[in-house]
Amino acid sequence: MISLKGLNQTARIDAGELVGYTVDGHEYIHQKGSPGWRSSDTEMFPIIGPTNEADFKVSTPKGAAVQDQHGLLRELQYQLVSQTEEKAVWEKTYVANTKVQNSKYPAKSTEELLAWPYNFRFQKSYELTEEGLKITFAVSGDQEMPFMLGYHPAFKLHTDTPSVRVKDKSIDLPQILAVGNRALAVLDTEEVTLSDAEELHIKTEGFGNFMLWTEVPNMLCIEPISFYPYAASHENLHTGFQTLTEKEKLFSVYLQPNKLKK
Prior knowledge:
The chain is mostly beta strands. It has one domain (about 45-260): Beta-galactosidase, Chain A, domain 5. It contains one helix and 24 strands. It has one helix at about 175-180, and strands at about 1-5, 10-15, 15-25, 25, 40-45, 55-60, 65, 80-85, 85-95, 100, 115, 120-130, 130-140, 145, 150-155, 165, 170, 185, 190-195, 200-205, 210-215, 220-225, 240-245, 250-255. The strands form six sheets. Strands 8-9-12-13-24-20-19-16-17 form a nine-stranded antiparallel beta sheet. It comes from Arenibacter nanhaiticus.
């Protein structure tokens, strides 16, 4: 477990997973063991969304790849690259066509092994700033590699009437619960605000969209995504790919608590 501290903030990170973020003692992150989800954050890469209705196969320029829901990155282990008092960098690497054990098999999937026909390196960094916690993702690998990226953090809810403000509208918890597992799409925006006991502004760079998901009233996943998977049929998930055309592609998420505003 690593703790980043400074500027009235503490971020707790366990093997690359953000398990706590507090400002002046207020916890923003869903705690493991609480109802709702067994994790507190994860990434969706190189695909986002369900693949079971497409026989767990996703079309790529190098042929069909066997992927389970939200991709295989979550099956890999992070390695710590560097750490200071206010910043830590973690990394996962993958060699093309390496078979990876699927943790959903056999209880929730028929596919025991997953694979991707491209090499990649995936870095995740956390940094405390005066405005809040900055989370940066750096994707590098084979040129022309297709991919999607989603970040899947879960936020702890402290009141019975939380809402998410998006531009000129507000989305309440019953609306999100009603959508179920598909998750509610919030498209064409790089920022939203969680209105709860303490407000949290979430600003992104590179993603372009969000999904909102929960099945319980005590937590809410606010997920920056590069593609909303239900915008295409299960067989056509590949239409949501972007292509790696540069040495490294950066995506950022800024958690900006209202408590830090001057």
